Amino acid sequence: MLTIKEVLLENEKQILINFLNENNLEYEEDITYSILVYEENELVATASLSNNIMKDFLVRKEFIGQNITNMMFTHLVSYLHQKDIYHYFVFTTPKNEVIFKSLNMTTIVKTMNTVLLEGGSNILHELSNLKHEFNISNNKKSALIINANPMTLGHLYLIETASKESEEVLVFVVSEDQSSFPFRDRYSIICEATKHLKNVTVLPSLPYVVSRISFPKYFLKEDKLITEEHTLIDVLIYKEYYQKIFNINMRYVGDEPLSFNTNKYNEVMKLYLGNRLRIVKRIESNGEVISASLVRKMLKDNKISETKKYLPLATYNYLLSEKGEKVIKDIQSKELGRH
C-alpha cells in the first residue's frame, strides 16, 4: 500500500536529499514543502513545492505506471488549496509533459530539456486581462522589463531613450518580491519618475517573466553562473505571449559590462528576438557605470547622501522616507544579492 509522508524533520530532509542525489537530481534551497511516497518501508517517489511551483517529481523505475505521479500531484494541489493558492506551475522534462497535460495542466513553453506548465489559470487570460485593465492599445509599441532595485538614472535613461524613439512604451515592473525594495514601492517610484513621459505606461510584469517561475536563476548571486537554458524559458514566454498580445515590436535593454549573468540573458535575447531587441549603452558617472547594485552597496556602507547623483528624485526621496529607512536597514543587515 502506498502512503504519503510530509518532509518535516531534518533526518527526513536528508533522506529526500539522498534520494534525489541517487537519481542525479539536486535538492534546491528554494523548496518550501516536500513529500515522500513509501511502499511499506521502501521509498519509491517524491515531489516538492517552491511556493506554488511543483518540481522534482521522481518515481523509482520499477514503480512507474502505478499513477504515483498523479497521486503526488493531487496531494500538492490539495495542499495549495488549503493555503488559498489556486494558480500553480510545474517544471518537468518533455517526456513527462503528457502526464501533466492529462491532469488539466496547460503547457506554456518548452525547450529541448524543460517544459513549463500551469494550472488553475491561463497565461493568455491573465495577460489579456492586464491589457484591458491598463487600456493598452493594439498599436505597435516598445517595451522594457525592469526590476529597478532601486530605480537609478540608468533605468530612467533607458526608459527615456525608448520614449523618444517610440510611439508607445510599456514598462513592465518585475512583480516578483525577491528584491531588497518591495514590488509596490519599486512600481510607485517608477510611476513617479516617468510621469513626464506621456507615451509611457507602467504596469506589473505578472509572474510569467523574470520570476521564480520563468527564470528562477535570475536572483542567484553572481558567483552562481547561469546557462542559456536558465534564460531560455523566460525569453520564449516573452516572445510567444507578451510580444504578441501587446503588439511589441522592440524590446529595450541596457548593455551589461558588469554582470556575466545579465549579459548571458542579453545574448539569449539577441539570439531569439533578433532585430526586435535594442541594446542601449549604459550611462556612466565619473567613469563608473550607474547600476542598482552599486547603489545598494553604497546604502550598505551607509553612504546614503552620496547615492543622490545616481538616482531620480523619486528614488532618493523614497530613501529618506520611513519605508526607505526600513529597506536601508534591511540591506545593511544582510549579505548583498544580485537583484
Describe the structure.
The chain is of the alpha/beta class. The protein has two domains: 2-121, Gcn5-related N-acetyltransferase (GNAT) (Aminopeptidase, 3-Layer(aba) Sandwich); 124-333, 3-Layer(aba) Sandwich (Rossmann fold). It contains eleven helices and 14 strands. Helix 6 packs antiparallel against helix 10 (313-319) and helix 7 (228-245) packs across helix 8 (260-273).
Compact summary:
The protein is of the alpha/beta class and 339 residues long.
What's the structural blueprint in terms of helices and strands?
Layout: E1 2-6, H1 10-22, E2 33-39, E3 42-50, E4 53-59, H2 68-82, E5 88-92, H3 97-101, E6 106-110, E7 115-119, H4 123-133, E8 141-146, H5 153-165, E9 169-173, H6 183-193, E10 200-204, H7 228-245, E11 248-254, H8 260-273, E12 277-280, E13 284-285, E14 288-289, H9 292-300, H10 313-319, H11 322-333
Helix pairs in contact: 6-10, 7-8
Radius of gyration: 22 Å
Give the fraction of residues assigned to helices.
25-40%
List how many beta strands DSSP finds.
14
End-to-end Cα distance: 47 Å
Look at the structure and give the CATH class of the largest domain. Alpha Beta
User: Please, how many domains?
Assistant: 2
Total helices: the number is 11
Mean pLDDT value: 91
Element string (H = helix, E = strand): EHEEEHEHEEHEHEHEHEHEEEHHH
Describe the global form. globular
Task: State the low-pLDDT regions, or none.
Answer: 218-226
CATH superfamily of the largest domain: HUPs
Percent of residues in β-strands: 15-25%
CATH architecture tag of the largest domain: 3-Layer(aba) Sandwich
